[in-house]
Design goal:
By secondary structure, the chain is an alpha/beta fold. It has nine helices and eight strands. Its EC number is 3.1.3.18.
């Protein structure tokens, strides 16, 4: 398919533009070791990524995607502090862009699309990663998971960026790897692209009915 009459493209970050799974897994396991919990394989931790740092920490303490046991609030607070401190100091050690990301983003800029990042990652972590990877200066707006009262899958962040950019929902496309991205887009009537290579909790992204699906980020050049 080919999207038409689009002005702005919104991107998720982790699992869509960048593969940050190894650095996140190291931070999670450092936190677990510090609190005397068992650690987990990287692939297991991958399935917990996507709903922000607090949920990731709670899932790690629970040992499951579903937080199905009582967690002590003070312990969760301490665990989150340990995780954020370690991750902040090791934020871009193994993290790297997925194939064709930089070239495709640059090409979209040449085509005069306005680009924005809408991530559930804490805002303060985003700019250092973009700068380290040479992805800065490409985005007009960057929204973190703690930037607003609600985050994806709520549509609030998408609608907020539309307002900031003075564009309507119909003129935008949301690109992401997770159900949170697609559900947020569907909730406000925005078309979307699901990428298949990210961290969607072990599920197929197609389950959530994105407008289009790509297996490689570079395929965006053919649909936008």
């Amino acid at each position: 398919m080919k999207f038409t009459n689009k002005k702005a493209i919104f991107f998720d970050l982790d699992g869509t533009l960048i593969n940050s799974a190894l650095d996140l897994a190291k931070a999670v396991n450092f936190m677990l070791q510090t609190l005397k919990y068992d650690t987990f394989e990287e692939d297991t931790i991958h399935r917990w990524v996507g709903n922000g740092a607090l949920t990731l920490v709670k899932r790690a303490l629970s040992g499951d995607t579903i937080i199905n046991k009582h967690l002590d609030e003070d312990e969760v607070t301490h665990a989150l502090e340990v995780f954020l401190d370690f991750y902040g100091k090791n934020i871009c050690v193994a993290t790297k862009p997925y194939p064709n990301v930089l070239e495709t983003l640059q090409n979209l800029k040449v085509k005069n699309y306005t680009l924005a990042i809408i991530t559930n990652k804490p805002f303060d972590f985003v700019a250092p990663i973009l700068e380290t990877l040479g992805l800065d200066n490409l985005f007009e707006v960057i929204l973190g998971g703690d930037s607003l009262a609600k985050k994806k899958p709520d549509p609030m962040p998408l609608l907020h960026v539309c307002e900031q950019l003075n564009v309507n929902v119909e003129a935008c496309v949301m690109v992401g790897d997770s159900k949170n991205d697609i559900l947020a887009a569907n909730a406000c009537g925005m078309q979307s692209v699901g990428v298949t290579y990210g961290y969607n909790y072990g599920e197929s992204i197609g389950v959530y009915n994105p407008t289009h699906i790509v297996n490689d980020f570079g395929e965006l050049n053919n649909v936008l």
